[in-house]
Amino acid sequence: MKSIWKNNIILFLSTLLFFGCSGTLRLNEFDLSKDYQVDGLLYQIDFSFVSINDSISSANIQINPNDLLFSKTQSGNYIARYSIGYKIFEVYNDKEPIDTATIHYSMQQIKKPKQKLHNINFVAPIGKNYIVKISLIDENRNFTTSKIKILRKKNARDRSYFEICSLKKSSNNRTVYQKDSFSLTPPNNFKQKIKVMTFSYKTTCAAKPYEVTHSHRIATIPDSTWMISNETQYSFPPLKNGYYHFVTDTRTQEGFSVFSVHPSFPKISSIKYANGALGYLLDKAEYANLLRNKNPKTSFENEWLKLAGNRTRAKNLIKAYYSEVSTANKLFTNNQPGWTTDRGMIYIIYGPPKIVYRYENSEIWIYGEENNLLSEEFEFQKIHSDISDHIYELKRNINFKISFNRMVKSWIEERGY
């Protein structure tokens, strides 16, 4: 009897272990729709990478202390307790990260800065790119938010070996999105010449989801080009309407980009962009007439009056619409403003997706229930480019026409009150 009992226990534990392991989700099986939500608790978390050496990289993580909940302690002080965790994956299909950790912090309310910067080192051997998931956990609220970015580290000329930093003293911005002048610092003993190119941003809407003849094109002819070399640090002024692309290996043309954004970013900064973003609510002829009009402000007002029916509804619609445009800018800007991208278009008209899955070469957005025939599903193919890791093209389909036009109509009818 004892041996039978022992064998049953072993079989039970083995079964439990088997099902426990099989239940582990791969990175591409997690729903990432929270990354695109704007309602409820908003936590500002941004980060960039710098490779310290061929084995270790560092994540420069910036958070806003005002997002955290400060709770009163027995001593009468108000303390925020939070954690920052990271997971490093080689591919989206991985179940287990190659490195992971969680670091706990606390902050007194009377000493909190406007922005808090954390530097966290992790293992990432040179020779490949990595997928890095950074999570911020507000322990007082029991709330977690996370973001995923790509660490490029195939060789010592990759993006992570170059340090980017705003020259504005009050800013700790080390990301590829710069509002002010910024510096670029190559790795130690970097002797190669760097080609610098500038490109202008697109100022018109993306092709609509049912325009199947459209094909995605990335600009290849720069507005300007020059070479730099033999400096330990370079400085660059902000561009009015464009981005820098740095070619760090002129033989392979490998490099990375830094995107100049307006001080008002992510809000629309000009009547030209405001008119450009209006195209999703208009047909082709109306949109072409709007862009050709020599008095853009008057044409802007006239188009919104036609859409809304009266000035009160027009004001409400304008406020709602450009709020969505600003959010699309924040989420999807890369080599073009976020509102001009395919993902930005779908986000503006359909709103935040309910379910998002990301794979090595694509991203799937689902509106409605998964595996429901009445739900709408959009597939975005990733455009692999040195410019950005976040360029995606919608897989267009003529069948989207009814759905898109219905959403535009309902958007106009429901948002003006």
Q: What is the secondary structure topology, with strand pairs?
A:
Elements: H1 2-22, E1 45-51, E2 56-63, E3 71-72, E4 78-89, E5 99-108, E6 116-123, E7 130-138, E8 143-151, E9 163-166, E10 177-178, E11 182-185, E12 194-200, E13 224-228, E14 234-236, E15 242-249, E16 254-260, H2 271-277, H3 284-292, H4 296-308, H5 311-332, H6 342-350, E17 355-358, E18 362-367, E19 376-382, E20 392-394, H7 400-414
Parallel strand pairs: 10-16
Antiparallel strand pairs: 1-2, 2-6, 3-4, 4-5, 4-7, 7-8, 9-11, 11-14, 12-13, 12-15, 15-16, 17-18, 18-19, 19-20
Helix pairs in contact: 2-4, 4-5, 5-6
What report would you give on this structure?
- This protein has helices at 2-22, 271-277, 284-292, 296-308, 311-332, 342-350, 400-414, and strands at 45-51, 56-63, 71-72, 78-89, 99-108, 116-123, 130-138, 143-151, 163-166, 177-178, 182-185, 194-200, 224-228, 234-236, 242-249, 254-260, 355-358, 362-367, 376-382, 392-394.
- Residues 1-22 have low confidence and may be disordered.
- The protein is of the alpha+beta class.
- Strands 3, 4, 5, 7 and 8 form a five-stranded antiparallel beta sheet that branches. Strands 10-16-15-12-13 form a five-stranded mixed beta sheet, with no helix packed on it.
- The chain is built from seven helices and 20 strands.
